[in-house]
Amino acid sequence: MFSAFSVLSAATAGRTGSGRPAATSRRRGRSRLAALTVATGLVAAGATATAGAAVADEMPQHRGGATATLGGLQAYGQAVVRDQGEIQQVPAGLFEMSVDGGGTLQTYCVDIHNPTQKDAKYQETPWSGTSLNQNKDAGKIRWILQHSYPQVNDLAALAEKAGARTLTEQSAAAGTQVAIWRYSDGADVDALDPQAEKLADYLYRNARATTEPKASLTLDPPAVSGRAGERLGPVTVHTDADAVSITPPADSAVTGVKIVGKNGKPLTSAVNNSRLFFDIPKDTPDGSAALTVQASTTVPVGRAFTSETRSQTQILAGSSESTVSATATAAWAKQGAIPALSAEKNCAKSGVDITASNKGDKPYAFRLMGFKHTIEAGTSRTVTIPLQEDQPYDFTIKGPNGMEKRFKGVLDCQTEAKTINNKTQPLPDPSPASAGGGTGGGDLAETGGSSATPMIALIAVIMVAIGAAAMFLLRKKKDPAQPSTEE
Question: What is the DSSP string of 337-367?
């Protein structure tokens, strides 16, 4: 299928939503298709540039939690989107994801015009790293999730509240997704099924602001440093799980590095607010190590999930018992600068925050994006690297003793409609080793998404060729005096 959208009869063009504002961000489908074509080219270029890149310790931008693979729509109906007189039909409903290590997540999307990529990898992400950060109605979206399907699985009771005659899993999922889109994208959208539309209107009218849920599991800070012979930390566990298991550094049997508590005793498990330390033997050569904590828990409803392949952002509607994990690193040396580095997307500032601390006895300096940054001994500093929306980035920061930390991803802080409306100039060329290409596959046509990006790219190439041929013919037509090449 070339597109997830199908144009409806013009007879429905006059239909409007019930008791809600029209779309706040609008562009014709052709503009979005063009933008998708450009984005596909950027991804392909970035993927090509990764070949032969130098190897460095790659640091994930998420602070822990669940990671999962996108499956497909589990329960869905149809929705009607109106955009400057153009009417389109799109599937709307509940996605399913498979959690790495075990478990299942159910999600809705919060970016109607951005495509999904089948089998895309997602990670649990704070709202500050998504378009929800700039959305004053993000808390209302969480209220909708808490008061509708699948959190409310008594569909008869839900239908009664909504004033609907009856609701199925499909119509309940469609109505819930439509209500979310009205807040996440400002979309002028209705459910095609009248009963699903009643639910969407009920949820939209009654939604109230709620707070962002806490992460299922994080370690704070994700990186520490110090001298050999010391306990480096603390690294604090934050989780809603009853307990987490601790995996010590892979070479701890050789180096003697241990993970201990405040009392210095080795730990194999921890609970919420536990403080962990890396115990580094005094004569240990300069180096680094990592610990991982893992647990099984239900991920809180309302947590966001993002993909570095620019597949549409998801928001959690339900979770089975699922595996969650987080990693923290430590670096140590006998003397000189001893930096610890971490990174996190900051959508409020349209960039990536690089946090560097230095527990050594000399300043630590690094260059990034043409600027030199110096972290004095015994201090910590956060540097925001500004980026444009949808821009791939790949930062490798070097340090003493051959240290290299690599941070890579794509800045995805706005919904697709807002991105198109706000763009005033083309993006610069992607940096080397960008986020990589899409996974594609299948006949995915879900919640505004499509697996047709390879076809779109092919069409783009064909159009460029046609344009070049047309220019050649026009030039030839304008110059009748041009000598013939025929013999």
Answer: --EEEEEEEEGGGTEEEEEEEE-SSS-EEEE
